[in-house]
Amino acid sequence: MIQEKGSISIHTENIFPIIKKFLYSDHEIFLRELVSNAVDAIQKAKRLASLGQFNGEIGAPLVDVKVDKAAKTITISDNGIGMTAEEIKKYINQIAFSGAEEFMEKFKEAKDASEIIGRFGLGFYSAFMVADRVEIQTLSFQPGATPAKWSCDGSTEFEISEGSRTTRGTDVILYVNDENQDFLESHRIESILNKYAKFLPVPVQFGTKTESEPDGEDEEGKPKYKSVEVPNIINTSVPIWTKAPSELKDEDYLNFYRELYPMSEDPLFWIHLNVDYPFHLTGVLYFPKIKNDIELQRNKIKLYSRQVFITDEVKDIVPEFLMLLHGVIDSPDIPLNVSRSFLQSDGNVKKINTYITKKVADKLAELFKNDRKGYEEKWNDIGVFVKYGAISEPKFWERAKDFVLLVNTKKAHYTLNEYKDYVAPAQTDKDDNLVYLYTPNAEKQDGYIQAANRKGYDVLLMDSPLDNHFISHLERDLEKTQIKRVDADVLEKLIDKGETISSNLSEEQTQEIKEVFEKAITKPGMDITVETLSAEAMPVTVTMDEFMRRMKDMAAMGGGMSFYGSLPDKYKVAINANHPLATKILAETNADARQALAQQAFDLALLAQGMLTGAELTSFVERSVKMI
Description:
The protein is of the alpha+beta class. The protein folds into four domains: about 1-205, 2-Layer Sandwich (Heat Shock Protein 90), CATH 3.30.565; about 240-375, Ribosomal Protein S5, domain 2; about 405-495, Rossmann fold (3-Layer(aba) Sandwich), CATH 3.40.50; about 505-625, Heat shock protein 90, C-terminal domain (Four Helix Bundle (Hemerythrin (Met), subunit A), Up-down Bundle), CATH 1.20.120.790. About 35% of the residues lie in helices and about 20% in strands. The strands form six sheets. It has a nine-stranded mixed sheet with strand order 1-6-5-4-7-3-2-8-9, covered by helices on one side. It has a five-stranded mixed sheet with strand order 10-11-14-12-13, sandwiched between helices. It is elongated.
């Protein structure tokens, strides 16, 4: 028997078309909203009981989700506080928002449910994204309450009548429309629950599952098992981030990581977040083992609000350089301007961002101080975070200067101050600048590295994807320090000591040998010079200017240097006037033989740089065979 009919108190009759049309792309969140409402109702019952305002039996809390494919219904049931008819009118029938015209104009182009739900209290009404009709059966916890039923067919008209529920709580029944029949598939509903409800604080059941349990022993005394149907509880209601670190062991953290990322290697270490003031924040952040493709490691942090999954887009909360971390952050104080989905950059978000940065810096400093050997062993992975932070986060860099490490080609690790003291005696130039040498590939540039080592110079290994940017950052930060690639010039010019080396060639001979090489070298972009180097140096060296190479490397990484990336490559070809080969070439009277020697020396220099390929490499090999 219908007790009352009426109109839902909203300012426009277009609200349901808006919900159905504009919110279509994110329509799976209806289940998150309704299950979250059910959890809230149960927690309110617990709260009222703890305050002495509810004296009944609380019972085992449970949210039960059912799908009836034949009836085309989805039912979300809870044993929470329930509602009276008056409360239905208050909480369901009055959608609290004003300015309907502004609302319509603002969201007429909206494509994402997250832009609307929640901003105007539409969480419950998200049910109409998938349902033609929604029914509520509810019984309040209040003594003497009678069951109530509410139904609505997607218009602004509703009906309230006597309900049929006999126990405290609420059933929300969705009569799924023809366009959304896929939500009647059990696997679809279960996947959504696994996504959003995995760690809700109240058990969420979806059907049953088959498990084995002991069933005595067989005739040989071996244990027997039988299959039994048990409730299929979707979630872990007390995840580790809700516990105190003192309650947890390393294996607990590792097991949780494996649950979140079942296909990943175990993490290096983790940080447990737990702060109550000036905001509430809990969570666990893991340092993963970084692979070569940094982009694949990003967006692995999951944001929750009171254990409800919100998003894995956390770039406003977590500093950019820590987007490579994995794990969970949970905070009820992160403002969600729409539904529980989009973040506002307000004061709390900035405070949380600063807090996480500080916690990470503290953890790294602690590891370095307490176990330097272990820290060095992990540096290949840790270094990516530290260098990324150095480049992008000034406050983090101020802390990180104490635990950032430089690694040389001999695999020795140094702090910034240690390395400065180590190389200063040998690598200070005539202008009192400290010069650091580095290589991006120790194997390919072994000849250059060995030549530098023979002069008493050390060479750093800078082979991570971020090192081009990190090198530039170090040069800006370190006083009177230059950083040069070991093949950026001849050694005597890489670290100019102001020493003068006399040439074995006269001016005429210098010009003559330059002309020989100019005729022999037909490769474009080669600037040929004759240098007075030590006799032990290579007869010919091919180098690219440090600045130009760095700009081109950054352009290749998409570092905003596209102009340099489009410029043709230019190299400097340095002919060593003091190498015996120079004298040998000048002594050769046959022009073709001169050319061949010059070409061979040039090709050797290209080979040392990995620049000799294809037909040029074949010609070099054939020429070398003839010269043997």
